[in-house]
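Lab meeting notes turned into a lecture example. A postdoc, R.K., suggested we walk through two folding results consecutively so the class can see how the record format repeats. The first protein's sequence and C-alpha cells come next.
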Amino acid sequence: MKQNEVLPEHNTIELTLDDQSWLYSFGVDPSWQDDPTLAVELNELIRMGSERINESYDESQHQQIILAREKFFGFVGIDAETLRAFRQVNPTIIPLDTFISTQRVMHNLGLDAVKIINTQPSAIGLAPESVRAKVDNFTALGLDAVKIINTLPSVIGLAPESVRAKVDNFTALGLDAVKIINTLPSAIGYAPESVRAKVNNFTALGLDAVKIINTLPSAIGYAPESVRAKVDNFTALGLDAVKIINTQPVALSYAPESVRAKLRLLELSTKVLQWEFTAKELIEEFPVILGFSTKKLQILRRIAATHLTDDARSIQPKSLKSKLVIPLEKYLLSIQLDEQSPLDDGLLTNAGRIKLNARERKAEAMILARTDKLGRIGIMYLDYAK
C-alpha cells in the first residue's frame, strides 16, 4: 500500500525572480533564470512534484512524483546524506510547493535554511504555517527567534508548549529567561532539571545563583565541576571567592591561570606604590580589577606612580575606583587644564573640577590623547582604552 499524503488543496506555484535569493543561499547558480529551457523544466518538476500521492495512483504515477521531487532537491543542492536522513522517517519527501513556500517564509524571516536543514534534516518537511507559528511563539515570549533558531537549529523542532515550559522554568527560579536565552541561545535546549541542578550547585557553594546567571548568562552553561574548580582556585589563593564572585559575577569566567597572574602583578604593584593595603584586599574590595588586562594594569601603575600625591597612596581599596580607575580620563583632561604645571600635586584637585558624564569624559580624553599634547601619557591612555 502506498503512503497517503493528507494535505490541503493547493495551487501549483512556479519559481520567480524573487526565489533567486533563497536558491542562491543553497548554492544554486542564479543564471537558471536566464535559461528558458531550464526554467520550463524546473517548473514542470515543481508541478509534478507538488502532486499529492494517494491510493488511486498506480506505481508509475507514484514513481514520477517521487522522481520529480528528488530531481528538484538535487537542483537545490541538498546533499544525499541529508536527504537520506530525512527520508528515513518521510519516505515520499515533501511536496515541492510546500517546500518552496516554506523556503520563502524562512528567507523572509531571516532564517538560515541551509544551516537548519543540514543540522536538522527533519526541517525539510516543515510547512510554512508551522515555521511562522514557531517563530511567533518565540517572539511572543520576548525571545529573538531568528538568532536562537539560526544559532541552535534543533529548536525549530520544539513544540511551542515545550518552549514555554522551558521559559517558565527559568522564570520560576528567579532567572531572567529572555536575557539568558537571547544571550546564550543554547540555554533553550537545557532540560528543566539540568537548569535546576546548575542553580542548586551555585547555591550550595554560597554563590548568588540568580544574580550571577542574570548578570553573566553564559554561567548557566558551566558544568558544576567547572564552577567548583574556579571557586577552589580563588580559595587556594587566599581570596574570598564568594565575595568576589557575588560582587563581580564575570569573575567566574576568568581562567584560574589568569587570576593567579593578576594576583602576582597586583602584589608587586601594591609594594612598588607603597599602598597601605594588600593585593588580596584590593581584589576583594574592587573585584572588577581582575578583568583588566596586564597591559592596562601596568599603565595604571605607571600613572599612579608618577602622578598621585602621597596622600592618595593611603587610600583604601574601596576608594580605588573613585581615586584611580574612573578618573583616568579626568587625569588626562586635568593636565590640559593646567598647562603651566601639568604634572604637579594639584592633579587630583584639577580632575575633581571636571563635570562631565562618563561618555563625554571618555570621548574628550580620547581626542586629547590622540594629539601630541600628552606625550607618553597620551600613548598609554590609547593603549589603556583598547
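The second example is placed directly after the first for contrast:
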Amino acid sequence: MLEMKIERLAEQIVRHHLLGQGRKKEALYLNFDLRLSSNRFDQSRGLHLLYHQIPDCASVSVFSAMTLSPFGRIGEITSWEHDVSHDSCWRDIGIFHPSILRWPN
C-alpha cells in the first residue's frame, strides 16, 4: 500500500508547479476535503491553500482559509489568513495538524 503524508504531497506539488516559476499576479491553489470523525460527530470542511512566489525571489508565501463545505469554491472565501512568507518555513507550516486547523462554526 502506498502511503504519503498530505503535507509532503502539497510540498511536492508546490516544488513542481511553482518554485522557480513564480508569477507576480498568480498563485498555486490547492483545495482539500478534511473530515473529522468520532463516535459522537462527523464533520467535513474545505481547506484552501494559496502558495505564491514572487519572480526571482526565494521565499514562498502561504495563505489559508477554511469553508464550511468541502466543496466550497475559491470565490466564496471572504478572508485569507497569511501563514508564512519564508524560504524554508512554507514546507512545514503545520496547517494539516488537527490542533492547528481553524474550523469555522
